[in-house]
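Lecture notes, unit on protein representations.

Consider one protein chain, 360 amino acids long.
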Amino acid sequence: MSGELKCLLALERRGALSEDELFLLQRLEAGDRGEAELLAMVESVFGEEVWVRRNVWLDRQVECDLLVVTRARVLNLNAKFYQGDFRYVDGKAFFNQSELRSNPVLAFQRSMDRLRELARRCGLEDVPVDGRLVFLNPDYSVSVDGSNVWPCVGRADVLKMLQDLRAEAGGSRLGTGYNSGSRRTGTPSGLDINWVASRLMTLESESKYWAAPLNLSHLQKMYRGLLCPSCGNRHLSVSQRIVVCACGHYRISKEQAVWETVQEFAMLLHDQPVLRTSELEWYLGGEVRRGFILNILKENFKITRLGRFTVFQNPFYREPRENCVQRLIDREDYIKRNSTIQNMNRITGVNKYNKQTKRK
């Protein structure tokens, strides 16, 4: 699952997404289902006779939904799960009769050109590098003319495609003549799968893209505190050691529940290099005391500054592509203002955010 999808799911559970973001979430979830289904099909057809990795970025240039190494070749399988009919005619892509501004077939062709160049860079110049665009939604049609370079495969033909690739790999003798420096890329029965995969993985990198940053509109709308992952309930029973939801499907140690929530907020603050205890206390809605949060942070995160206000390194930090100084200032000011209100409510015995929370 991509970082962008994880962030959107976290914000959706907390009611903080806009309509546009909800639409993006639905699209990414559909794509994730398609990738998972394709991975299951590859594993069922090939078994252990193949190396496969999902959601791979190479050198921040090429994204592979499924990167596969067989005895015969390297395969980049790009999974699509469009909620509509897809046509590709004369170099133009259409979705439900409307031309797409972003052409997935041309984008895949460019991606494959870069992948072949990267394979040459890591010593795999003699290894065949191939690709397929795979359309997995069985409810809609796919029509592609002969102007595309790489094969486009509809849902009904996916299984046959994989069986043909397995048959090719089973009869492969491609590796007998391959050499790369002093190391052979092949064996008498075809490619040395693990060695080829290890060469490709020397180029593995973080995603070129990441989720949109957390902004004030998200902070203003989001539900805070511990949430039940099963039903989304915000009104949990929190004791000294256990967190329980009335739905009956969520009973977990308080330490684990807080740790998971801390990681979630750290991920959402991916444009922020440090974490402050006060921010996490705010995110937890005042349901957990600062000392409890501080102990969890000390056990799991690196301290970057000691003192009255200890600061921790954010392991999810990704350097922003744009100037984000003002956004960070606005976000910090908003949390500080609301933390003051939250602390006053606690002093006066008012729990504005979760009246059913039990604190001992």
